[in-house]
Amino acid sequence: MNRVYCCFPGGKHKALTMSYDDGRLEDRRLIEIFNRNGIRGTFHLNSGLWEGDARRIQPEEIAELYRGHEVACHTATHPTIARCPISEVADEIFRDRAALEARTGYPVRGLSYPNGSVTEEIERLLPMLGIRYSRVVGSSDGFALPENPYRWMATCHHNHRLLELGEQFRGLFKKQYLYLMYVWGHSYEFGEQGNWALMEEFCAQMGGRDDIWYCTNIELMDCVDDFRRLQFAADNGFVYNPSARACWLRVNDGEPVCVAAGETKRL
After folding, report:
1. Tell me, what DSSP letter sits at residue 144?
2. Of the chain's two ends, which shows fewer C-beta atoms within 10 Å, N or C?
3. What percentage of the chain's residues is helix, strand, coil (to nearest 5)?
């Protein structure tokens, strides 16, 4: 029987994604750094806090500023949702989704918990609200894919061992594993702490590498979901891809194989 491993797009075995909350004006500078280095990420916005707050990115700027990245929910008004009635939680998330979708023109399916606040009841609610993943606070210091995408913990906050972990990640070479480096934070923290140079250095070191897939949070989840939908023959001799996106495989340690959308491919 063939030995088949799933891969990230292009047959890559490493992925980098970024995740930043609150939609403050400093996102402009952060996105400029990302774009210059080919790095991509997800920005979690509070649509109910736009009005009257000059510190925040305003709705008319969203579509252009975040182009090439992902816009995701952070609830409309940023309450500590574990203390709220579940109906209020649903309203906060659904209102945020609707407002963000009106500005982006695509389904908004990601979330980060405001103040890291979550309960099992909230976690069960999210799929019914169209949310595919949500990030918690904290740093795992690791490079594994999320076992539970509704309690997705990043590799690190940008103030926690960022360059050290980046160096470890760049050195990973075993292609029998999939590795993910996930960095989170708030863009306004760079101004408060005077450490924009940290992100400049990290992105310069991590960008433009041919062994890393640069993705948003939802693209990572979609890639995992696409692989799970693949339909393999009993002996792994061929595979059918029912998804609308291509999938990449490595068969018997050979070169990466692309299975196009809707294709049945011999392996």
Report:
1. P
2. N
3. 40, 25, 40
